[in-house]
Amino acid sequence: MHATLLALMMAAAAGTPWQAIAPGAERLRLDDPRLELFRFDLEKYRPEVVVPGPANPRSASALRAETGAVAAVNGGFFDEKWRSLGMRIARGKTLIGLRPRVDWGVLMVRRGRAQIVHSKEFRPDPTIEEAIQVGPRLLAAGQPMRLKPQSARRTAVALDREGRYLTLVLADAPTSAQRVAETLAELGFDAALMFDGGPSTQLSLELGEVKLTLMGGYAVPDALIIKRR
After folding, report:
1. What is the pLDDT of residues 100-134, one digit of tens each?
2. Backbone torsions φ then ψ of 3, nearest 5 degrees
3. Residue of 5, 60, 91, 156 with fewest CB within 10 Å of its CB?
């Protein structure tokens, strides 16, 4: 039996492995692979895409503090001039259009629910409040994608089938993308999307008694933040 699945089954037998850290927010820590997961009820929390842009890149910790968010993670890819690559929608406004012909996914938020679709399945909709295009997708319909062998620090986002709960995923040490995908599938997630990894990877969270900051190698031009409603 897979070591991660066995560990989760043992934890479940002793009680849920998720730890409540605030109303509508929970934390899960895994040792193999070493992951931190923070799950947010979207009826109590609101994800927002923030794009400070190439002229004013910001760290996740700076953005969290400046916006009053409870959490912030780095966002998508960007070029050598710090320009974001792929679509970014913030507060209903399309800041950057869809990047075509890429095997990426799109995280969308609308009407208090989140959804991840492949780039080719994305359709413009005025009800979309927030969106970020990046990749690859880690899960689709609960199944791990077949991913290229690669190991790096990582952030990702994972969703339940109804899209009511959004989970930030952090691997603070080099970790196989395939292993992350398989672990998220074992945990019962329905969809997941990997954000920019390596030195871009960073997360800042302050909620309840939990304070966590993972610094990246540099500031980034866009991010996903989580705010209380």
Report:
1. 999 999 999 999 999 999 999 999 999 999 999 99
2. -60, -40
3. 91
Asked if 224 and 48 touch (Cβ cutoff 8 Å), the reply is yes
Question: Cis (ω within 30 of 0) for the bond into 52?
Answer: no
The ranges assigned to domains in the chain are 3-228
Q: Which of 92, 94, 95 has the alpha carbon at shortest distance from 111?
A: 92
User: Whole-angstrom Cα distance, residue 178 to residue 91?
Assistant: 33
Q: Which residues pair with 30 in a beta bridge?
A: 35
Torsion angle of the four alpha carbons 164, 180, 142, 21, in this order, in degrees rounded to the nearest 10: -30
pLDDT at 2: 54
Give dist(CA 193, CA 183) in Å, integer: 13
Give the C-alpha distances (Å, rounded to integers) separating 94 from 51, 73, 86, 131, 227: 11, 20, 11, 9, 20
Taking every pair of Cα atoms in the chain, the longest distance, rounded to a whole number of angstroms, is 51
Which tens digit of pLDDT belongs to each residue from 148-163? 998 999 999 999 999 9
SS3 state of residue 159:
strand
